[in-house]
Amino acid sequence: MELDQWNDLLLDLPAAHILQTRQWAEVKANYGWTPYPKVWRDEAGKVQAAALILERSLRLGWFTAGLRVMYVPRGPLMDWKDELWRTRVISDLEKIARRRGAIFLKIDPEVVIGKGIPQTEDALEDSLGRGVMNWLRQRRWRFSTEQIQFRNTVWLDLAGSEEDWLARMKQKTRYNLRLAQRKGVTVRLGSIQDLPLLYRMYAETSLRDGFTIRSEAYYLTVWQKFLEAGMAEVLLAEVEGEVVAGLILFFFAGRAWYLYGMSRNLHRDKMPNYPLQWEAMRRAKAHGCQIYDLWGAPDEFIEQDRMWGVFRFKQGLGGEVIRTIGAWDYPARPLLYVLYMQILPRLLEWMRQRGQQQTRKEVGV
């Protein structure tokens, strides 16, 4: 089907996600992926499920010619409690992967297995998520060693007044927010013209915090696509008129996402990220969002986890941990899948090193 009305079809489905939208499909189409939107309807014509399937041909030399992989980011979207539709959708996806000759099909739907940090008094487990994991195993799906998106995340509930939000925050977070405001940190809306500056800050952030990013062209394409669609906003934190931090706020179907955040080393003592997130919460609420997804939490909730520091920051804002089933692979060609997964770690490490070198080159480090 065409993508023209795609976003409208998603609005009534559970867990409609920004990574399942038409705009994301158009971005990925510019970077080697072919989108295949798939819809399942009941006899009355009502949409019961949908999946934006992305397909990519491998370009790793002559020995990969004709090989492809498939991915449904944060999907498929459906009521996972409905076993009839669940079976129909997953069976169809398996058939599509086999018919297309894919090595594997990856899915990472937002099926919740629990809330809160495991083994704490506030933790709640969800039997549906555990049941779906067991069901996938029975169908010979494998929990993926390649988790493209974050398996766990943190949600902020935007219900209530701003005073309610403050009450849900940790005391230290409220203190830092007020401290930043007293020290003159201000937040304003940015525009498409600010995107090159945002990328430079993002590159600086990646080198400081030790994570790999893509090229400037990729991020400018993503950010501009969603800004032009009215599905994102730029927020910039300033000190004495100088930009020191920023974020891109995405919103769709009653939810907002903090997918990209960036900051400079300058004026970090003034805590610019606190008023920046406060304004993001206000903007998300103004756009009709009930949930603000802070995008990312540790796989293991221990201080040694590389995300522990940023997680504590998100938790301080009053967020709740949401744990999901993560990414699962259907090996449509099992022998090739095993070979691919043996080669993948070395390939990813090479790509990370190359990406960091390119980032340093772009920012002149």
From TrEMBL:
Residues 185-342 form the N-acetyltransferase domain. Transmembrane segments: none annotated. Coiled coil: none annotated. Keywords: Acyltransferase, Cell shape, Cell wall biogenesis/degradation, Peptidoglycan synthesis, Transferase. Gene3D superfamilies: 3.40.630.30. InterPro entries: Acyl_CoA_acyltransferase, FEMABX, GNAT_dom, PG_Glycine_Bridge_Synth. GO terms for biological process: cell wall organization; peptidoglycan biosynthetic process; regulation of cell shape. The keyword Cell wall biogenesis/degradation applies. One of its GO terms (molecular function) is aminoacyltransferase activity. Pfam families: FemAB (PF02388). Belongs to the FemABX family. This is N-acetyltransferase domain-containing protein. It comes from Bellilinea caldifistulae.
